[in-house]
Specification:
Length: about 180
């Protein structure tokens, strides 16, 4: 298995079960819908077709079963945590850092026109239910985006984004009690 894929899978698994890796823990982890989806999404990038082809089939099946629409080419760092299943849409041009959480009903989408592009999300970002992030924006590290917030502007590090239209509130360590079991390599 590619080292990067293996590390990301270990980090994702650690987020739901913070103990040393074992195959027993991996099998239990596959009971989590979010982890199961990310496991196969990551395996889809494997160079060996014996691994990648069945993974592509599983991602296709799970996309329709769970409502997750995450392109496999979208760069997503290790320790990605999907809290609940339900519609999640992420643009092919977006990027997400390490140890990030996303809840159901979220959209991380591309925009056209003046703000053309897709969000670039750094490490330790918590995205609440129903949040929408669109356009060529930068979301700094250690940011909490509250449920139902609409974000179409850059967000500085150590911030909370709340409301529609969104407002930024500066706060030290806003995700401290929200991003549990962070994977530190």
């Amino acid at each position: 298995m590619n080292t990067e894929i293996k590390q990301c899978i270990k980090a994702d698994l650690f987020r739901i079960n913070p103990s040393s890796f074992s195959y027993k823990k991996l099998i239990r982890g596959l009971g989590s819908k979010g982890f199961k989806y990310m496991f196969f999404l990551r395996l889809k990038k494997h160079k060996n077709p014996i691994v990648s082809i069945p993974a592509k089939c599983m991602v296709w099946l799970l996309t329709y079963r769970y409502g997750f629409q995450i392109p496999s080419v979208t760069p997503i760092g290790g320790g990605f945590f999907i809290g609940h299943f339900g519609t999640i849409v992420i643009s092919v041009n977006a990027s997400i850092g390490e140890n990030c959480n996303i809840a159901h009903g979220c959209t991380i989408g591309a925009a056209r026109g003046k703000n053309a592009g897709a969000p670039q999300i750094k490490n330790f970002v918590w995205i609440g239910t129903g949040a929408v992030l669109v356009g060529n924006i930068q979301v700094g590290p250690d940011v909490m985006i509250a449920p139902n917030a609409f974000v179409n502007f850059d967000v500085p590090p150590n911030s909370i984004v709340i409301g529609n239209p969104a407002k930024i509130i500066s706060k030290e360590n806003p995700t401290k009690k929200y991003i549990n079991n962070a994977w530190i390599d």
